[in-house]
Amino acid sequence: MNVLVMGGTEFVSSSLVKYLLSKEYTVDIFTRGKRPIKYIGIRNYFKGDRNSKNDLKKCLGSMIYDVIYDISAYTKEDIEKLVSVIDKRDLKRYVFCSSGAVYSPSLEMISENFPTAQNANWGTYGLNKKLAEHYLFNLYEKEKFPITIFRPTYIYGEGNNLYREAYLFERILKGKDIPIPFGNNSKNQFIHIDDLVRVFECALLNQKSIGKVYNVTNPEIIGWEDLVNEAMDVIGSKVEIVKVKSIDMQNYKIDHVRRFFPFRDVTSLLNIDNLINDELYTPKIDLKEGLIKAYNWYEHVKPELKDESMTMVEIALSSINK
């Protein structure tokens, strides 16, 4: 089966490519070519700007694929340009990685039929993903363009280039206290990268998934204190969890939780009944197991990561009388 992955050098796309290669798919990738790839076995490495229709046409206009995984699209325009140049005659599936950020804010468990809208917690990211989905659904309705859309929660695991679990590991190993937002009692879910790529693949093997959208997550519900405690258990070392309230942030002019914490302090819970009912792969790696895998990778690779938003970690800690 001939597969094109849009992306191939960042966390999700590179993990997907490596997984597909392990399953002996014939894989091409399309990226800007600005980062090296850390695997072998792909057939073609196309380098270009997906915002340039000329680049897309030059690289992909004469290619024929059974499957396209679009991991790097963030806007409707990204997808429009690609769809306008690819040969669709033999395409069996177009898998789009969307996001749970497309939903309206809610404290409840969200199913796929829950309203989508611009969500202030996620800004233009969620809105652009929503508009991209809408474009694909229209293509499916008008042309039976064989789409499958996935909406994952927070993705973590080996190779994560975002300063999330790595931030926790780093502070715990250095014996530094960890501030967490306190007061909203936010609850979230996570999906390990190994589970996500298996979900992506299983869509190809299941005709029920054509024209549908699925929430994707491990159903385990996690609070911020739970997350930090699990990370400490994995490492086998303890630091203090410092709970920072909104009033503490105001006193020190900390304008947003993301200034001292790597996640948004909002509840986001997704129901995966549709994934189960259509007999797609169900995520199996719970947070403890996933963090063990992520930490083993972190210790081996020792990635140097940072988050430009997190400039007030120490100020958040100093705002509390311990």
Walk me through the structure.
With 322 residues, the chain is of the alpha/beta class. It has 2 domains: 2-155 and 190-216, 3-Layer(aba) Sandwich (Rossmann fold), CATH 3.40.50; 162-189 and 221-267 and 285-318, UDP-galactose 4-epimerase, domain 1 (Alpha-Beta Complex), CATH 3.90.25. It is 35% helix and 18% strand. It is built from 11 helices and 15 strands. It has helices at residues 11-22, 53-60, 76-85, 124-143, 165-173, 193-202, 224-235, 246-251, 273-277, 287-301, 313-318; strands spanning 2-6, 26-31, 44-47, 67-70, 93-97, 109-110, 147-152, 154-156, 178-181, 187-188, 190-192, 212-216, 222-223, 241-244, 269-270. A 7-stranded parallel sheet has the order 3-2-1-4-5-7-12, with helices on both faces. A two-stranded parallel sheet has the order 6-15. Helix 1 crosses helix 6.
Please give the structural blueprint.
Blueprint: E1 2-6, H1 11-22, E2 26-31, E3 44-47, H2 53-60, E4 67-70, H3 76-85, E5 93-97, E6 109-110, H4 124-143, E7 147-152, E8 154-156, H5 165-173, E9 178-181, E10 187-188, E11 190-192, H6 193-202, E12 212-216, E13 222-223, H7 224-235, E14 241-244, H8 246-251, E15 269-270, H9 273-277, H10 287-301, H11 313-318
Parallel strand pairs: 1-2, 1-4, 2-3, 4-5, 5-7, 6-15, 7-12, 8-11, 9-14
Antiparallel strand pairs: 10-13
Helix pairs in contact: 1-6, 2-3, 3-4, 5-7, 7-10
